[in-house]
Design a protein that fits this description.
about 160 residues, alpha+beta, 7-stranded antiparallel beta sheet, 7 strands, about 35% strand
């Protein structure tokens, strides 16, 4: 793997995979200020309350919390603000159509460095119902039990 392809994780939204059924994923760049990048280099960010929002001029990440960089000189940056996501125009238009459907939303999955660039992995998602979550838990439990039984039989 070359130096430009090295991926370093900053933050991950683990609840997104539990709460939503992911339909499609997209890697986007993100427009940041200098002190935000410095804060991200320290690994400080929260995607828990964040979501994607379509506007007339593109796709935005709303609600992501990037704490102040303690050594910033000119007052730093706003902790929570709308940050423009950088993606191809065709992809953004396609996602805009999909996001207008009932029950479909855009959620961030993870924030990471790819080389020296900050990237956000966004997903088109549909909210899971409670019975879907329970069904998934039952499947996981059954698979665990089968694996244990197979291991016991091998002994």
């Amino acid at each position: 793997m070359s130096r430009t392809d090295a991926v370093r994780m900053i933050a991950e939204n683990r609840r997104a995979r539990h709460e939503y059924l992911l339909l499609e994923e997209l890697e986007c760049g993100i427009a940041l200020e200098g002190s935000e990048v410095k804060s991200l280099r320290e690994g400080r960010c929260s995607l828990a309350e964040a979501y994607g929002l379509m506007r007339s001029d593109g796709l935005y990440l709303v609600g992501a919390h990037i704490p102040e960089y303690k050594n910033a000189t000119h007052g730093g940056h706003q902790l929570v603000r709308d940050r423009k996501l950088l993606a191809h125009r065709r992809e953004v238009a396609k996602w805009g159509k999909a996001a207008r459907e009932k029950g479909v939303t855009i959620v961030p999955l993870r924030l990471y460095f790819r080389g020296h660039l900050v990237k956000v992995e966004m997903a088109l998602a549909k909210g899971k119902k409670l019975h879907d979550k329970r069904e998934r838990e039952k499947e996981k439990s059954a698979k665990r039990e089968m694996d244990r039984a197979v291991r016991r039989d091998r002994r």
